[in-house]
Amino acid sequence: MLQEAVDTYIASLSAKEYERSGNNRNTIMAYRNDLYQLCTYLVQQEIEDWAQVTREHIASYLLVMRDGQAYRPTTIARKLAALKSFFRYMRSIKAIVVDPVDKLETPRIQKDLPQFLNSEEINSLFLQVGGDTFSGQRDLAMLHMLYATGMRSSELVSLNLSDFDATHALVVCPGRNGHERRERLLPLSPVAVEATQRYIERVRPRLVRYANEQALFLNHHGERLTRQGFWLIIKGYARQAGITSITPHMLRHSFAILMLKGGMELRSVQELLGHAHISTTQVYRQLAHATVGIE
To answer: Model confidence over 125-176: pLDDT tens digits?
Structure first.
């Protein structure tokens, strides 16, 4: 009976996914797994009906996750979000009278500072790219554009040929701001413009297979390069440069710190990065101040 209610709730979320774009299928599946785990725990406690679940049961379950299963605070917070959503639904359909997670405190999450590459690592990364090969010219254009704009790697591979404006040294980034999609006009450095023009003129015509292909950056099959494909390329260069730890966001973090160290205002950096809230950008100012004089 416990799991049947979960299945009904998940079905309602899946139905909403077709009505609006805000819901994420992966999130829905994560919610289902989290709630199934709670069902297993409640059955062990001899609970057969959701109306029997109390605040004490949920508090005990959170302790099991923290102490017994050693889940990180971020994981517990995510699972608690699933529980809160589910119990709000159960109360809305009058399956329960009292919400056992109402006003239950979410575990405090200690946010790690963003990791970034210093100037020496950036230079070393770029030096690994062979500009004398077709793939190297493409990769160099992508790296320069990413480092010049701070865009997400997912945004980079989403670019179309028409988004690049060499005349005005701009690129139209099909970004996102929270759940709202909003384009950003991002200025490009002269070296990024030059590298991208060279790629478009010399390399892209050799890669493209179909005349109506809109993607700016193509893979060897003549199709839009995927985020996974792009990151495999970057990890390969990082390995050659001796950079043992690198993530998709590290070039983005490095860009933000570079801009702040160069005197750009925090609000301007927020606009360039496409952050919905300035608090997301503020952490970079702390890192920029900490690294002054180090490099």
So the answer is: 999 998 889 999 999 999 999 999 999 888 999 999 999 999 999 999 976 5
Phi–psi pair at 177, nearest 5 degrees: -135, 95
Whole-model pTM? Answer: 0.60
> How far apart (Å, rounded) are the C-alpha atoms in residues 104 and 293?
45
Tokens linked to 259:
């801009």
- Domains by residue range for the chain, with CATH: 2-92 (1.10.150.130), 119-291 (1.10.443.10)
Name the nearest CA neighbour of 83 among 44, 50, 45, 47.
50
Q: Is the dihedral of CA 78, 80, 83, 84 positive or negative?
A: negative
**141 vs 193: CA distance, rounded Å:** 8
Give pLDDT tens digits for 169-202: 999 997 654 444 578 999 999 999 999 999 999 9
Helix (H, G, I), strand (E, B) or coil at 216: coil
Buried b (16+ CB within 10 A) or exposed e, 179-202: eeeeebebebeeebbebbeebbee
Identify the burial level of 9 via C-beta atoms within 10 angstroms of its C-beta, where 0-12 means exposed, 13-18 middle and 19 or more buried.
buried
| 147-to-80, 88, 272 alpha-carbon distances in Å | 37, 44, 12
